[in-house]
Design a protein that fits this description.
The protein is mostly helical. It is built from 13 helices and no strands. The protein has three domains: 138 residues, no CATH class; 108 residues, Receptor-associated Protein (Up-down Bundle), CATH 1.20.81; 65 residues.
C-alpha cells in the first residue's frame, strides 16, 4: 500500500508539472504578443504610463488565474499585489504539488495515516505552503517599504518647500527612491495621469500598500486638500513620527533577539538530534517507523513542537506591539 500510494502521488505530481509547463508556454507566448503590441505604443512622454499599465495587466492576463475560483480572485489578486509580485502564480502552482507530495509521503511513511489521511495532509500542505510563501513575501516587502518611507516623506517635504506641487513631489519620489517605495509612488502617479482623482488614487495606493503608516500619510494629504494648512509642516511631523516608530521597532527587535534565537534553537534541536542518531545508530529510530505506537509518539511530539512555536510567536508578537 505505501509503495502504491507513493507511486500514485509521483505520477500525479508529474501530470501536474506537465500541465504547468503547458500553461507556462501559453503564458509566455501571450506575454510576448502583448509586449510586441505595447512596444509599438511606446513614445517618450507616455513610456512610464505604459510601463505601469503593463505591470498592472500582468496579473490579470496570467493564465493561471483561471485555476482560482472566481469569488476568490479579487482577494487573491490583492494578496499578490501586496506581496509586490515577488512570487509569481506560476511558482506557486509548481510549489503546491511538490509540497503536497512531500508531506503526503512523509505522513504515510512515518505516521501511517492511511489513504484518506495522507491525501488530506497533502492537500492541506499544497494550500498552506503557498499561502505562507506569500505572507513571507508580504512581510519582507513591508519591512523594505517602511525602511524607505521616512526618506520618501522627507523628499516630499523638501520638494514642497522648493515650490513644487504635490503631484510633482510624488513623481520625484517615484524617480529618486528605490523600490519598493519608489514603485508604489510611480503607480500612484500613473493612476493620476490616466485620469483618477487625487483622492481616489491615494485611497487606491493605501489599499494596495496596506500599512498603517501609509494610511496616515494618505489621510494627511487628503485632509490638507480639503481643509488647507501647512502641508510641509504636517508631513515633516509625520516623518519624525515614522522615524521614532522605526527606532522603537529596531529596539524591540534587539530586546527580543534572545527569545527569537531560543525559539529557533528549540525548533531545530529535535531534528538535529534525530539526524545525528540516524547516522550514528540507524536502527535506533526504526521503532518509530515500524511500530504503530511510534507514529503516535511522533505525532504528539510534532503537535507539542508546533504548539510551543505558536505560543512563542504570539509572545513575540505581543512584545512587538
Amino acid at each position: 500500500m505505501p509503495i502504491a500510494l507513493i507511486f500514485s502521488i509521483t505520477v500525479m505530481f508529474f501530470i501536474v508539472s506537465a500541465v504547468a509547463l503547458l500553461l507556462t508556454s501559453a503564458a509566455d507566448m501571450r506575454r510576448a504578443a502583448t509586449q510586441k503590441r505595447l512596444q509599438t505604443l511606446r513614445t517618450g512622454g507616455s513610456k512610464q504610463i505604459i510601463d505601469e499599465v503593463e505591470h498592472r495587466s500582468t496579473m490579470a492576463s496570467d493564465p493561471y488565474i483561471a485555476l482560482i475560483p472566481k469569488h476568490l480572485r479579487p482577494d487573491f489578486k490583492r494578496m499578490m499585489e501586496s506581496a509586490g509580485h515577488a512570487i509569481s502564480l506560476r511558482k506557486l502552482m509548481i510549489v503546491a504539488p511538490i509540497a503536497g507530495a512531500l508531506v503526503a509521503t512523509f505522513c504515510q511513511v512515518f505516521f501511517h495515516l492511511g489513504l484518506v489521511g495522507t491525501v488530506i495532509a497533502g492537500i492541506l500542505a499544497g494550500i498552506l505552503v503557498p499561502i505562507q510563501m506569500i505572507r513571507m513575501a508580504q512581510g519582507k516587502l513591508k519591512r523594505e517599504f517602511l525602511s524607505q518611507f521616512p526618506d520618501s516623506v522627507d523628499l516630499i517635504v523638501r520638494a514642497i518647500r522648493a515650490g513644487l506641487p504635490i503631484s510633482a513631489a510624488l513623481d520625484a519620489v517615484g524617480k529618486e527612491i528605490a523600490d519598493p517605495a519608489g514603485k508604489e509612488f510611480r503607480l500612484l502617479v500613473a493612476d493620476m495621469k490616466i485620469g483618477m482623482t487625487f483622492e481616489e488614487a491615494m485611497r487606491r495606493a493605501a489599499a494596495r500598500v496596506n500599512l498603517l503608516e501609509f494610511s496616515f500619510f494618505t489621510a494627511s494629504l487628503i485632509l490638507q486638500r480639503e481643509t488647507g494648512g501647512n502641508l510641509a509642516e504636517t508631513l515633516e511631523t509625520l516623518a519624525s513620527v515614522l522615524r521614532r516608530r522605526q527606532e522603537m521597532t529596531l529596539k524591540t527587535n534587539t530586546l527580543t533577539s534572545e527569545a527569537r534565537t531560543s525559539a529557533y534553537v528549540m525548533t531545530a534541536l529535535p531534528f538535529f538530534v534525530a539526524g545525528v542518531l540516524f547516522f550514528v545508530s540507524p536502527g535506533y529510530l526504526n521503532v518509530y517507523i515500524t511500530d504503530p505506537r511510534g507514529s503516535w509518539i511522533l505525532g504528539m511530539a510534532m503537535a507539542s513542537l508546533m504548539t510551543g512555536i505558536g505560543i512563542m510567536r504570539i509572545m513575540l508578537a505581543q512584545a512587538m506591539k
